[in-house]
Specification:
Blueprint lengths: L8 E2 L14 H10 L4 E4 L24 H14 L5 E9 L5 H9 L5 E5 L2 E2 L2 E2 L14 H18 L4 E2 L17 H18 L2 E5 L14 H9 L4 E4 L12 H10 L4 E6 L2 E6 L4
Helix pairs in contact: 4-5
Length: 281
């Protein structure tokens, strides 16, 4: 068994129920023990609400009837491995404009440790799905960024979430506004960050971007620096979709935060935030 490296956490993971990941919840927990994690956050995708899973792209999220089974299994694993690793039961709960009431019902139905608020969808377009990259064709990229960051701000203001996920995932496939719109793009980012800061919730540094076409964590360092200046609490996640990817690139994420002066990370129990020391590894 690996020796625990200071106090390591990974708050963003996905397993086989979502359809586009592999591995069982228990395989993630066992892997977390093997690599010396102190806490592992189980945070699979909320079922699809605004599109018909039968006619939409396949393997996007867990079916609705799997959600209670996911929660039951996650809490059973929390008890089974108590004393070996702290299992946190979470959800990545998509924010979808116009579907707030349905999202709130799901969030209120279960005793989560934390809920990640992520924007994947602009209408029926999942901007993070590699199968839907063609939707960028002919788009005004800045206009898409406007819609996306407006949705991030709206998500923060709902009060549904504890953490905002992969803040600038919109850049995943390398689509960015033209250089002459740089100042306006930064203004969009700042407005969304201000909404997060005002809401009092946390934000993650999602390391998975290092393995994506953008080759940069979510969010970029300039955004992280602004978040730190605004006093936004931060946590870290690998966004692993395979147990073998658990904690991937989190050494870089932790080092980045430490280099920017961050000395605490946000953790959650029963929706209550607790800050833990971030030590140099």
């Amino acid at each position: 068994m690996a020796k625990k490296r200071n106090y390591w956490i990974d708050y963003h993971t996905h397993h086989a129920r979502c359809g586009h990941a592999v591995g069982s919840l228990e395989e993630y927990v066992v892997r977390g023990i093997e690599i010396g994690l102190s806490e592992i956050g189980l945070s699979d995708h909320m079922p699809l609400l605004h599109v018909d899973p039968e006619t939409y792209y396949p393997e996007m999220a867990m079916p609705k009837d799997e959600l209670p089974r996911y929660v039951e299994e996650a809490f059973a694993l929390k008890e089974k491995y108590r004393g070996q690793i702290d299992v946190k039961v979470g959800l990545e709960g998509d924010y979808i404009e116009g579907w707030e009431a349905d999202i709130e019902k799901i969030i209120q139905a279960y005793p989560w440790d934390y809920v990640i608020g992520s924007v994947h969808f602009l209408g029926e377009w999942d901007v993070s799905d590699y199968r839907q990259v063609h939707n960028w064709d002919g788009q005004d990229v800045f206009a898409v960024y406007e819609r996306y960051y407006k949705a991030i701000g709206q998500a923060a203001k709902t009060g549904f979430y504890d953490i905002i996920g992969h803040f600038d995932v919109i850049k995943r496939f390398g689509n960015v506004p033209d250089a002459e719109r740089e100042a306006e793009t930064k203004a969009l980012e700042q407005a969304a960050l201000a909404a997060i800061a005002e809401s009092g919730i946390a934000m993650e540094l999602n390391a998975s971007g290092l393995s994506k076409p953008c080759a940069e964590m979510f969010p970029a360092n300039r955004i992280l620096e602004s978040a730190i200046q605004l006093g936004i609490p931060l946590t870290v996640g690998s966004d692993a979709h395979n147990p073998l990817k658990l904690s991937e690139h989190l050494d870089k994420a932790r080092a980045t935060l430490y280099g920017l002066g961050v000395r605490e990370l946000a953790t959650f129990t029963e929706r209550q935030r607790r800050m833990i020391p971030l030590e140099q590894d």
